[in-house]
Design goal:
Blueprint (H helix, E strand, L loop, with lengths): L1 E6 L4 H16 L3 E6 L6 H17 L1 H13 L3 H8 L2 H10 L4 E4 L2 H14 L5 E4 L16 E4 L5 H6 L7 E3 L14 H8 L6 E6 L8 H11 L4 E6 L4 H10 L4 E4 L5 H7 L2 E4 L3 H10 L3 E3 L6 H11 L3 E3 L3 H12 L2 H14 L5 H13 L2
Parallel strand pairs: 1-2, 1-3, 3-4, 4-5, 5-6, 7-8, 7-10, 8-9, 10-11, 11-12
Helix pairs in contact: 1-16, 2-3, 4-6, 5-6, 8-11, 9-10
């Protein structure tokens, strides 16, 4: 048995979700191949759309938001037509390979499969995994067997869009297995060489950095209680990392790229982050209270709203508000405890495991 996973390079979350699903399939003895859906149009096309999407998303977020809101009100036919350009190539690829199912972790992949099904009569079972807490524009345009979504609370929006409830599976967004393991806070702090008795605030700067961090970090440290310690994760953003090393105070630890994110989350009492679908799911699983800020209009703002409405995060719009809410939460431990309790109540259905088991059950009963 083999399964094709279609992703897209328009954000790390889609590839990360595909990789989590791949690993779960492989644990069950199922072979997988992960492909960029845009590459079936052309590699140049993929580079242009992916880099263009990323550039606008990073540097012109308001423009990105205008486009996203327009697509929410109007079917994204232009995007569908662009993906349809790869239908012939993709149909040939499927004819040459032997796949039992296709799972898309990006709506682009679902559009590609839908066009191939229409044009060439391909009947391979097709599933889509939604990696945000939102109803994507164009979701009702695609032909899929099942939609895997982040939470039960999203089901009404999908039903209102005309999607049958029996095709909706609240699987949870697939994340890496390291976040599903049990972690001890004291052990995590000792292993990471962090203060064992401090109240630790984790800040994810994002791939570009949330604003001028070299100016913001010292101010944030000054605003935090005297027993608090700030940990900033810069990821691949070397410019932010170098700048922060030169401007951070004694109660700030600056980290570049690390594969120990789960441990840092386990060590922390509170996290400040952009509301990316994968990262907030990781925090949900780790039961880490969060302050979500600087959301790009579109999926991220929908994520932020969904978590704030469920009282498992606090939504802020600027750094001043973020400072105030961070200090307020640190000084009200009962509120943090309540947030963790609600995270446990919401729970995590299983993500990749639910997705893989559902697909395999469908295939075995066909």
């Amino acid at each position: 048995m083999r399964v094709l996973l279609l992703s897209a390079n328009t954000g790390g979350g889609h590839n990360s979700a595909a990789d989590a699903i791949r690993l779960q399939f492989e644990q069950q003895g199922v072979g997988c191949e992960v492909r960029d859906a845009l590459s079936f149009v052309s590699e140049i096309h993929s580079d242009i759309i992916s880099s263009g999407h990323t550039y606008i998303y990073r540097y012109f977020p308001q423009l990105f938001g205008i486009g996203y809101r327009y697509e929410e009100r109007h079917p994204p036919r232009f995007i569908y037509e662009q993906m349809a350009l790869g239908a012939k190539c993709f149909a040939s690829f499927l004819a040459e390979q032997s796949f039992d199912a296709v799972v898309s972790t990006h709506i682009f992949g679902s559009m590609l499969v839908t066009e191939v099904r229409k044009r060439y009569g391909v009947t391979i079972p097709h599933y889509v995994v939604i990696t945000d807490y939102a109803l994507y524009p164009g979701t009702d345009m695609v032909d899929v067997k099942r939609y895997f979504i982040g939470a039960d609370g999203l089901i009404p929006a999908y039903v209102q869009a005309g999607i049958s409830p029996d095709r909706l599976i609240a699987s949870g967004i697939p994340i890496r297995s390291s976040f599903l393991e049990k972690h001890n806070k004291a052990e995590a702090r000792k292993s990471l060489h962090l203060p064992e008795r401090a109240r630790i605030v984790l800040l994810f700067s994002g791939s570009v950095g949330c604003g001028r961090l070299h100016r913001i970090a010292p101010e944030l440290e000054r605003n935090l209680p005297s027993d608090a310690h700030l940990v900033i994760i810069c990821g691949h953003n070397k410019r932010a990392y170098d700048s922060l090393l030169n401007h951070s105070g004694p109660r700030t630890t600056v980290i570049g790229y690390t594969n120990r994110i789960a441990e840092y989350m386990a060590a922390a009492d509170l996290c400040i982050s952009k509301p990316g679908g994968l990262s907030i799911t990781e925090m949900l699983v780790m039961q880490l209270p969060m302050v979500l800020m600087l959301s790009v209009p579109g999926c991220e703002s929908r994520n932020q709203t969904f978590f704030a409405e469920n009282a498992i995060a606090v939504a802020t719009q600027d750094w001043d508000e973020t400072f105030q809410e961070t200090v307020r939460l640190l000084c009200t431990p009962d509120t943090l405890s309540d947030m963790r309790h609600r995270m446990r109540q919401i729970g995590y259905p299983g993500g990749a495991e639910v997705i893989v088991n559902t697909v395999l059950n469908d295939l075995n009963n066909t």
